Amino acid sequence: MHFDHNYSPWQFGKFDLRLRLWLRSIFVHSPWIICFGILLWFLMSSQGISLMEYPVEHPWIRFVCFGVVLAVAVAIFQMVDGLHVEVAWLRVGLRPPKFRLIKLLFYMAGSWAVSRAALTNEGLNQYVAIPLTFITVLMVSIAMVYPVDPEDTGFKSTAYFLFLLFLPILLLAGGTYLVIHHMDWLAGLGAFIVVGAGLILLVTAVQSLFLLLPWMGIVPTAVLLLAGCTYLVIHHIGWLVGFGMLIVGAWLIILAKSVQSPKPIPTVGAIIVTAVLLHGCQEPITERSNPLLANIPPNVEPIAGTCSDLIKAGAVTTETQSDAKPRPMFLISAEGGGIRAAYWTAVSLEELSQKRSRPLLEETALLSGVSGGSLGLATWLAAQELPVGARLSCIREYLSSDFFTPLIAGVLFLDIPRLVIPKSILDTHRGDYFESYMAYRWLALTGKPFFYRRLADLSFPGSEARIYFNATDALSGQFIAFGNAAAPLPPGANEKTASTLNSILREHLSDLRVAQAVHMSARFPYLSPNPDVMLPARDAAKTLFNRDDVDDGAPTRVASLVDGGYFDNSALGPALRLLEDQAVSNDEAVKSQPRFILHLFNNQRRNCYSNSKHSGCMRATDESLNELKGFSVWGWLNRPSDAIVAVRDQHSLQRLNELVMAMKNIPSAQRLLLALPMPEAKSDKVLEYLAKVPFHGRDQTWSEVALGWTLSPNEREFIDRQASQVRDEPKPE
After folding, report:
1. How far is the CA of 588 from the CAs of 156, 181, 365, in angstroms?
2. With contact defined as beta carbons under 8 Å apart, do 491 and 573 qualify?
3. CA contacts within 13 A on the Cβ side of 720
4. 540-552 pLDDT, tens per residue?
5. How far apart are CA 192 and CA 197, in angstroms?
């Protein structure tokens, strides 16, 4: 490409000139800066720490995949650098900084750091992972660059240029295909390869546009932009039409001035405006019953393991039966807390049930869960359909799955591309495929389609338990519960509005399946989608404002369902209401009915105030004190999120205090709190030092269990040991 030298180096001072050129370089490569910033933040998070130790099903394939992605990234990086940065130095009569090799080495060093953390969480694999990754990078890079002469301007060079432009988009399309059709295989690669490869491919796709717009020329670029604006005009009326035409005119002016020179700001501006325009054409996803759960997939290949072996062997029951009539006296509530809460809830309940003379479910009147607690309850309920001897193994194997990778893969490979893909082409979203993966995983492990079952029809032989998975309406802040019966509202709730909204949502989502209800209760911020529940305006007016005089039929947002922990992370609301109703009942038989409240919580720091000398608590509180020392420079930015988390935990404690007060009015009521304790801290100075380093591969044996959607093997072993002690807890018979 040829660029005219429009100005002399003497137009600016030497320092000012170099500053402008370095700012240009930073601006052009800002996608990479953002990408690696996100990766570093992810690696240093509690979820990233757990994933450092998480084993994957396809360890060697992911090394090669990561190498291919890095090779493509290097090619795009070098091309953009040469076109937008080095040419700028030459145009002002200066030579670029010493050797492009230095930039390449810097980039490869950053990639090495990321790949080391991404690929070495399986012990000795690090000695093979990094060499295999970079052998792949080298081979793919040679294959891509060697056949092409960089000085050639003919067809071969042009074809290679186009190939580079569209290669990252093609790879992203491949990721989308895997999300839609082979999520289990993609999950087998592990979250690090999905996060790293997904982000890098998105960056290379964006930087491909940095190359594309100046290279295309003004006519084809203007045609494409005009087509995008025309699409906007056709689908929207009113002021948007004038706005769209204004954007078209502005673009033509910008491109006319920048298309013959590598000006990054107009190019990036054009990319951003294009994305905004196309995104404005999209219809937001709406809440409806997941179509992927409507039918049970046939010919599912079973997952080999201890779970399937025990089921095939018809594992002998160790459960004893009683001839006494079951008493529905248990009220079970499970707090939220990610996969930590799910694993603790399911394993503890099964350990407790197997120790009793009668199955726990038969004498349970109510089960209420929030977030991870909902997943734990659902998994425990699903296991009740299996032979008793296989239940614990199947629960452990299922909840040892990587639930994080399907979510993040859906974000990177499906929903981000969906921002510029018309809804008519792709109507499903990451939540649909995550729920499908959740249901399919249990089906493949056990052969049982529990998570495909309609929630409203959920029942178990010998049990009349009412089951609730709690969520929150983000628009009104109200408590929402989905279950096999209408949920009792928690004390203090607005009876009229909350009851009406719950009834409308139950009717609107009458075909709700178990997997979708669990996900609604456990929608993690940003990772999970938050679709809106849409109703005609006349129905929305009746539901929200008790008005009958509205005739408008326009789609109107009624609710937006998010994690139940926003409203109440304790899940105690339905149980408290049932106790409250029992206490004021005029029927003495009802009033004297025995109740046993079984509450499971997993916040390991909660008991540290009363047990401050515990070594694990001392380590945890030391970490908190170090974080609180000094003034918070970013307090103005962090305080809203800090307040949400802190208030949620305090609200759970308040619910526990309300439970104590409610039990005073029912002499026959008892309670049992199953709390996940803090592990004893090990004194290891080396580990303590490494824990402060971003890429540390932290040993989870001396730390509290991370809050996230994946557990490391050491974390699972710790929870299993604690759950086995539940058998020794006092149990009413």
Report:
1. 90, 58, 19
2. yes
3. 14
4. 888 888 888 888 8
5. 8
- Highest average pLDDT, of 42-51, 84-93, 123-132, 504-513, comes from 504-513
On whether the CB atoms of residues 523 and 434 are closer than 8 A, the answer is no
165-201: per-residue pLDDT in tens?
778 888 888 888 888 888 888 887 777 778 878 888 8
Distance CA 394, CA 396 (A): 5
CB under 8 Å to 65, separation ≥6 — which residues? 189, 193, 197
The burial class, CB within 10 Å (0-12 / 13-18 / 19+), for 316 is exposed
Query: For residues 380 and 386, what is the distance between their CA atoms, to the nearest angstrom?
Result: 10
Q: Considering only CA atoms, give the Rg of the chain.
A: 29
Picking from 99, 211, 88, the residue whose alpha carbon sits closest to that of residue 158 is 211
Q: How far apart are the first and last CA of the chain?
A: 84
Q: Is pLDDT larger for residue 75 or for residue 521?
A: 521
Cα 196 to the center of its chain, rounded Å: 15
- The pLDDT value given to residue 384: 94
Cβ pair 431, 410 in contact under 8 A: yes
Amino acid at 380: W
pLDDT tier, 344 (very low <50, low <70, confident <90, very high otherwise): very high
DSSP 3-state assignment of 246? Answer: helix
Alpha-carbon span 518 to 434, nearest angstrom: 11
Spatial distance between the Cα atoms of 377 and 502, rounded to a whole number of angstroms: 21
- Positive or negative, the CA dihedral 509, 510, 514, 517 is positive
Q: How many CB atoms lie within 10 A of CB 91?
A: 17
Calculate ∠ Cα 576-469-185, nearest 5°. Answer: 150
User: CA 153 to CA 657: how far, in whole Å?
Assistant: 76
Reported as a pLDDT band with limits 50, 70 and 90, residue 343 is very high
Residues ≥6 apart with Cβ < 8 Å to 143: none
Phi/psi class of residue 649: alpha, beta or left (left: φ > 0; alpha: ψ in -120 to 50)? alpha
Q: Please name the residue that has the structure tokens 């079984």.
A: 598
Tokens representing 325? Answer: 């009539």
Contact 364, 459 (CB under 8 A): no
3-state secondary structure of 392: helix
Cα–Cα distance, 392 to 382 (Å, whole number)? 11
The pLDDT score that the predictor gives to residue 365 is 92
Q: Where are the alpha helices (DSSP H) in 415-513?
A: 416-418, 430-446, 495-508
How high does pLDDT run on average in the chain? Answer: 76
Q: Report the distance separating Cα 455 and Cα 510, nearest Å.
A: 9
- Confidence label for 368 from pLDDT (cuts 50, 70 and 90): very high
